[in-house]
């Protein structure tokens, strides 16, 4: 019996040691501030980023109000960074709009788990139809 336990332990160690382990970003929850670069966002823009689905989904907060609508898209991914662009679209002309402010949570999907990459956030505003 003792020999069987030792053999099982050796087999477990041998199979676990055979594959290199890489950080794959399997955590869920908010990203630490050091992993979010919000320097391209306006000062009053939300810059909280959460991760889910083993790091393949980012939950970000946009900013919209009145007649405007915000969307988010991943515009670039490389080994070090994932760039998320917020686009706030406003209708043309000067329509009557409410003076409310909303910060909806938006979802963007990544090609690979975020891992240790930095989420770079930026924003733009356009006049015209809603993007997408």
Could you walk me through the main structural features you see in this protein, from its secondary elements to its overall organization?
This protein is mainly β and 132 residues long. The protein has one domain. The protein contains 1 helix and 10 strands. The protein starts with a helix and ends in a 5-residue tail after the last strand. The model is unreliable at 4-25 (pLDDT under 50). The chain has a 4-stranded antiparallel sheet with strand order 1-3-4-9, with no helix packed on it. The longest helix is centred in the N-terminal third of the chain and has 16 residues, at 2-17. Strand 3 and strand 4 (57-61) form a beta hairpin.
Give the termini separation: 64 Å
Give, in order, the helices and strands: HEEEEEEEEEE
Total of DSSP H or I helical runs spanning 4+ residues = 1
State the major sheet: 4 strands, antiparallel
Which stretches are low in confidence, meaning pLDDT under 50 for 5 or more residues running? 4-25
Radius of gyration: 22 Å
**Biggest sheet, strands in spatial order?**
1-3-4-9
Count of distinct strands: 10
């Amino acid at each position: 019996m003792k020999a069987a336990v030792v053999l099982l332990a050796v087999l477990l160690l041998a199979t676990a040691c055979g594959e290199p382990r890489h950080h794959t970003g399997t955590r869920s929850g908010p990203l630490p501030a050091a992993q979010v670069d919000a320097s391209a966002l306006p000062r009053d823009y939300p810059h909280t980023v959460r991760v889910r689905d083993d790091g393949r989904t980012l939950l970000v907060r946009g900013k919209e109000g009145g007649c405007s609508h915000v969307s988010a898209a991943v515009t670039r991914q490389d080994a070090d960074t994932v760039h998320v662009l917020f686009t706030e679209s406003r209708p043309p002309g000067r329509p009557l709009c409410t003076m409310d402010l909303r910060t909806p949570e938006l979802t963007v999907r990544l090609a690979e788990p975020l891992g240790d990459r930095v989420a770079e956030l930026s924003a733009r505003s356009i006049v015209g139809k809603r993007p997408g």
